[in-house]
Each structure stands twice: as structure tokens, then as C-alpha cells.
Amino acid sequence: MTGREFLELDSPRQRLYLERLKQMEAVQKILNELPKADQNLCNHGSYFLAVNSSLCGLAANNFFRNILHVRRAFFVSALPMAVIPFLSTAAVYEVFVREALFSGRLNCEVCAVVRGGLIGAVVGAFYPIFLALPVNASLAARYSSSPLPGRENVLRFWLTIAQPVFRKMSLGVLVQALTGLYLATKHHGIYGKVLERMKPSRDPEELQE
């Protein structure tokens, strides 16, 4: 190993990475010692938000199908509307709330709660609605189930089509926002429990070092 490689391995960025890795291992160890209810909520809570996102996608898909009189290819449109919102919501919440909390990158409770609410509303509700529009628009064009406008009236036509769907889905948006707020609050509470358990066991180690 050359001197340059050794210095790169011992760089501040490398030390910070190793410290964060050790912290995440300690956090995971303490998480395994918490009650099962806290463990289940911490590990699987985001799936509840993701399932609700799938339901929002299926509901929006059904509304657009009815408005555009699409009667064919139900599973072709339903499958992506159930799978894509589920995966997207779970992944985004995991990265920006749960992992950010337990890796120590997000310590502000208000920030965590706001993130959870925004992810629930935007990714968990609005995104499935926006996704359902082009899916069903392509089916309507393919099967000629509804007369589509010319280029000059495209924007007005789709705004008219989307408005009643957004009104019907307003309750779903509210539920998803509240669910995201609730999950983020609970996850931050669990993170607080982890920090409380880390303090007494962490100080003697620091004194030894």
C-alpha cells in the first residue's frame, strides 16, 4: 500500500464514514433489544404507508377508467398502479425519514415529521393520481373508448378530466399526509429511545479511548 492510499484511508471523510457505520451498528443492536411493537413499527411501518399508496393508485385508476369509459385491459392498468406507488413510497420514506433518522443525519423532530407528511401526501397520494392519468389516457387512445381532443385543446381537456378525480381523492391525500406524520412521529420517538439507551453505555467507551 502506498503512502497516498494510506492517507486516503485515514482521511477525515473515511473516519467519518467509519464512525457513522459504528453508530448504525450500535443503533441496530439497541433496536433489537426494544419491545417487539417498537421493532415491528420501526422495520415495517413504512409498508403501511406504501399499501395505502397502492390503494390510492387503484382508486385513481378506477376513476379515470370510468371517466374515459375504458372497459378493457383492467389488469394491465391495475398492476402498475398497485406496484409502482408501493415501491416508490416505501423506498422514499425509508431513505428520507427512517434511514436518515437512525443514521444520525436527521435529528430534528419537526423536520422528520414534516418530511413524513410531505412524503405521505406527495409520493403516497398525488404521485399515484398523476401516474394513473397517462396510463388510462394511453388505453383510451388505444381502444378509442372516448373521443380525445386535438392538440390545441389537450391541456384544457385533461385538466377537465383530472379535476373530479382530484376532488374524489382529496380524502386519500389527507389520510396519507396524516399517516406520514404519524409514522414519522413514532419513528422519531423510537429513535429517542435508542439515544437514551446509548448514552450510559457510550460514555465509558469514550473515556477508555
Explained architecture:
The protein has 209 residues and is mostly helical. The protein is 85% helix and 0% strand. The chain is built from 7 helices and no strands. It has helices at 3-9, 12-31, 36-68, 74-102, 109-143, 154-168, 170-208. It is elongated, with a radius of gyration of 23 Å. The chain starts with a helix and ends with a helix.
Give the SSE map.
Layout: H1 3-9, H2 12-31, H3 36-68, H4 74-102, H5 109-143, H6 154-168, H7 170-208
Radius of gyration: 23 Å
Shape: elongated
Number of helices: 7
Counting DSSP E segments of at least 2 residues, the number of strands comes to 0
Q: How much beta, percentage-wise?
A: under 5%
- Average pLDDT: 85
Roughly how many Å apart are the termini? 27 Å
Helix content bin: over 70%
Q: Which regions contain 5 or more consecutive residues with pLDDT less than 50?
A: 1-7, 201-209
**What structural class do helix, strand and pairing data support?**
mainly alpha
Q: Main β-sheet: number of strands, strand sense, barrel status?
A: none
- Secondary-structure element order, as H and E? HHHHHHH
Which terms summarize this structure?
single chain; 209 residues; disordered C terminus
In short:
The chain is an all-alpha fold and about 210 residues long.
